[in-house]
Write a structure and sequence with these properties.
The protein is 69% helix and 0% strand. It has 114 residues and is mostly helical.
């Protein structure tokens, strides 16, 4: 079985299982913003960041990096055609998103390069 197929075989069930947690974190984050509670926003942000790192690990990336950072680095290195339009969309919402999340001191444990 190809490695990418194996990675997706693991990714989708976990994604479905984590959907309620993701929904909870987004709801907490929105409530924190509405109530202007920085600690509540911080808790939600940490959960969302952890979910992002988990999904990246499930897709063969380093567990200490996010999907956005991994895509940003792949764009810089000219390795991923699909990453460019995804980061372009993210940049419309949050300018410089993928480039800002590149962690140059991480990534040694990436198993499946983009």
């Amino acid at each position: 079985m190809p490695r990418i197929a194996l990675s997706l075989l693991v990714f989708w069930p976990v994604a479905v299982a984590l959907a309620p947690l993701l929904a909870w974190a987004l709801a907490v984050w929105l409530a924190g913003r509405a109530l202007r509670q920085p600690r509540v926003i911080g808790v939600a942000w940490n959960v969302l960041y952890g979910i992002d790192q988990l999904y990246n690990a499930l897709l063969g990336g380093d567990p200490d990096t996010t999907i956005s950072g991994r895509m940003g680095l792949a764009i810089e290195q000219g390795r991923c055609r699909l990453c460019r339009p995804v980061c372009w969309l993210l940049d419309r919402i949050d300018p410089g998103h993928c480039a800002r999340f590149i962690e140059r001191d991480e990534g040694e444990r990436e198993v499946l390069p983009l």
